[in-house]
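A further point concerns the way the authors explain their paired sequence and structure data. Nothing conveys this as quickly as seeing an actual entry. An entry of this sort, consisting of the sequence and the corresponding backbone structure tokens, reads as follows:
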Amino acid sequence: MAGTSLSKSFRLKPLHNFCTAAAADVVPPETPAVDPPLPQKPVPAPDQEAAANYQAREIQSSERRRLPRVTRQNNPEKVEDAICRMMANRAWTTRLQNSIRSLVPEFDHSLVYNVLHGARNSEHALQFFRWVERSGLHKHDKETHMKMIQILGRASKLNHARCILLDMPKKGVEWDEDMFVLLIDSYGKAGIVQEAVKVFDKMSELGVKRSINSYDTLFKVIFRKGRYMMAKRYFNKMLNEGIEPTRHTYNIMLWGFFLSLKWETAMRFYEDMNSRGISPDVVTYNTMINGYYRFKRMEDAEKVFVEMKGRNLAPTVISYTTMIKGYVAVERVDDALRLLEEMKSFAIKPNAVTYSTLLPGLCGAGKMTEAKEILKEMVAKHLAPRDNSIFIKLISKQCKAGDLNAAVDVLKAMIGLSIPTEAGHYGVLIKYLCKAEEYERAVKLVDKLIEKEIILRSQSILEMEASAYNPMIQYLCSNGHTKKAETLFRQLMKKGVQDPVAFNNLICGHAKEGFPDSAFEILKIMGRRGVPRNPEAYSLLIESYLGKGEPSDAKTALDSMIEEGHAPDSSIFRSVMKSLFEDGRVQTASRVMQSMVEKGVTENMDLVAQIVEALLIRGHVEEALGRIELLINSGCSVNIDHLFSVICEKDKTIAGMKLLDFVLERDFQVDSKSCDKVLDALLAAGKTHKAYSILSKMMEKGRATDWSGCQDLIDSLNREGLSKQADILSRAVKGSEKKPHSSNKEKKKLSAAAA
């Protein structure tokens, strides 16, 4: 059949061992023969040269058309690979199934097995496994069942695996022990011990004979969960069934009991092993050494190590590494180093575990020179440790020992070993470089951190500590590199860092460099995140705004400082007030003055007086009066007489009248001449009734006045038709001339007339 020949052209050699499929076993596809040359077109005979050229062009053209076909056939895609690719890229539908059928008319064992082996995930493999069986395309045998159980076991789809296993007899396929062993092991790796035990017990019910292989697998599963009593019961059951334990069995039992910290039980099994005439092998001795190490009985471990050598069993790298681990655990680092040299002398190459075991011990013992050499060996052999935490210890210890170059070399070694560096590694180096005042080297490390965004790596465990980034940020902000410091800290902020020291350093740095807006933005971030802000940062920010001629922004920063609960000193208030005042923003300066007085700062009174004067002159009388009252209530002295003089000089009669009225209402003491100046100004401005009201209030308050303009005021009142007020004032003036104080009756008349 054509289908048969197509399948055979891509067939693989039979895979007797389901778990050892290798590329070398694949039979390369036969290379098809090159297509024959295309037939030549007839050419006219008379022109032989033209004919020759035409024929040459045709030959070249035919070769160009054939070459791609040959090239494509040199390395064709295998059918099983094509099927796996199709399953990975398309949903499992009838259309996909038809596509696979059109690609492979006939399915044989090798093709089905290799599709299962090459499937991208377990779901693809299971769908293909069931489809070829239900569609009658292929009848599965032990090997494909075994492969499917293995795939599902690795994917922890153990119910599916169990169903496939138990359904095998229905399909006419016999069980064998290896299938159950595989399922038991899969349950064990998934941590489901009880199900593993049930499968093991089910074997006898189903008539599947159990051998030592089944028991060994069960023991490993049980011991991984620390069920040492269950292991003992099944060991006795094994003996009752007449199954003799092997050396491998005893090795598992010893390993399990040591793992469960059952020293005495492990020793009894070791004695039982010897009594049965089973001699220990290297694995046994390694297990014993590891057990002694767990109990920190290194003297006994040494005896076992010597005994192993005495039996002509050459210690392996595992033997030496376990001994080194034990020596490190009991702080016998010199013995560990001696053993390292011994294994090298026997041409036993230390592996990554050996070095990783030794390095922490050297760090703990302060043997940093030796640790440095060990690290060099690891880099030279490109041996990366399994536990990367050793590097942070190495960097820290080298830094504490004062060898910063060696610490930097550790970082370089990590890069050389392709081990991801983390922010914590850089942080330790930066911290100690700053302590040693080697800031330039520290800055270079910061540049790498920022450029590679090492801080933001999601897989990072070691974060940069405040003791590392704060000195660095402070240095950068103090030396004109605040922008770089902010970039560093913004990356730290994305990892949840909210350090007030760093924030305030950034504010100070931006302020000193003349970028107050950037500093204020940092302040806003701190406010949103509830981070406390210090007064020094505010002061520098305010000074920066003032230096750039932006007093309004300086005032905003000052308000924020006060809201934060800080008390600015008098120099800050004065600077802001003066800048606002000189910028013509008198009312804003007045509000700063109010804040200053409310905070108990009563200095800078000369500037305060100028602001009050400016308010009165500009017509902000009510605000000026409020500030005067605040100042007096706060115990500050206010030269009101001077204010009267200034107002009258500027012909601000209404302001003078309101100020005098304010003074009379609160019984403030002023010079009578100041009052006379106001009355003169009102009378001169033709504001007769207002002058009369003020004079009446003065007389009502009992303030003696010898104002020379009284008669002029009386005449003015008469001219304006206010004869009643003129008469009352005339009698009041005459009465005051006779008596030092007017009677209460006269005061009431004056008050009523003024109203």
